[in-house]
Amino acid sequence: MTSAKYKRVVLKLSGEALAGDQGFGINPAVIQSIAKQVKEIAEMQVEVAVVVGAGNIWRGKAGSEMGMDRANADYMGMLATVMNSLALQDSLENLGIQTRVQSSIEMRQVAEPYIRRKAIRHLEKGRVVIFAAGTGNPYFSTDTTAALRAAEIEADVILMAKNNVDGVYTADPSIDKTATKYESLSYLDVLKEGLGVMDSTASSLCMDNDISLIVFSIMEEGNIKRAVLGENIGTIVRGK
Ligand code: UDP
């Protein structure tokens, strides 16, 4: 069997990645394709933790722009990530993959509370751990959650799966046709150039803790496996 380059990964799925072309909600075909791809790497003995966003349902910033209290709007965003996490859990378990959802906001009827040591134990036993409810704090993002959890569980890399782009570009490729894709770059470049890879809180957390990040497209089936094998897909943002 081909061996994986990374043994423990954090897969960051934006909410939009679950929505597919419809842009809102959860697209069953898309979530099944993602679950299949996660299964592929879990079967390669790669330990997989997943952080799911909620842009397909609700974003705190949008709520606050409509006049809502920002913290309240952010809590709604965190709750929306729980819905996405349960949907992903369901798809994975339909494929026979053992999973646990751990929530940063306690809701014992639907998910375990986030306990770092327990999460690591699940991973060691080959279970896919889905981290729900972001960091549990308003004013943060699920990108920051991915960075934080990756540091906590000592993941080898963050796999940032995108549905609308296949890497990091010099400018937004959907607007600027002359934009070119980076093969690799540093977090300092990301921060200095203001590249929209992830928010600056997440970038600096990755930079300070030497966490590498691979940005790639999830729309091509098999890409998660390619990323884990170390194939040159997308863009790598190097921690060191
Ligand atoms: N959120 C938060 N704290 C966190 C993580 C998320 O308040 O630690 C809220 C925030 O309102 C955010 C929403 O949850 O807009 C959804 O997360 P995000 O925007 O990161 O989702 P994505 O863009 O990945 O779909």
Automatic annotation (TrEMBL):
Primary role: Catalyzes the reversible phosphorylation of UMP to UDP.
Domain spans labelled Aspartate/glutamate/uridylate kinase: 7-217
Record: residues binding UMP: D74, T135, G136, N137, P138, Y139, F140, S141, T142
Residues the record lists as binding ATP: K12, L13, S14, G15, G55, R59, N163, Y169, D172
The protein's name in its UniProt record: Uridylate kinase
Subcellular location(s) per record: Cytoplasm
GO cellular component, one term: cytoplasm
Biological pathway: Pyrimidine metabolism; CTP biosynthesis via de novo pathway; UDP from UMP (UMPK route): step 1/1
Sequence similarity: Belongs to the UMP kinase family.
Coiled-coil annotated spans: none
Signal peptide: none
CDD domains the UniProt entry points to: AAK_UMPK-PyrH-Ec
Pfam family, any one: AA_kinase
Subunit description: Homohexamer.
Keyword Nucleotide-binding: yes
An MF annotation (GO) of this entry: ATP binding
The EC number(s) this enzyme carries: 2.7.4.22
Enzyme type, top EC level: transferase
Main location: cytoplasm
Regulation: Allosterically activated by GTP. Inhibited by UTP.
Region annotation Involved in allosteric activation by GTP: where it falls in the sequence: 20-25
Keywords annotated in UniProt: Allosteric enzyme, ATP-binding, Cytoplasm, Kinase, Nucleotide-binding, Pyrimidine biosynthesis, Transferase
GO annotation terms (biological process): 'de novo' CTP biosynthetic process; UDP biosynthetic process
Catalytic activity: UMP + ATP = UDP + ADP
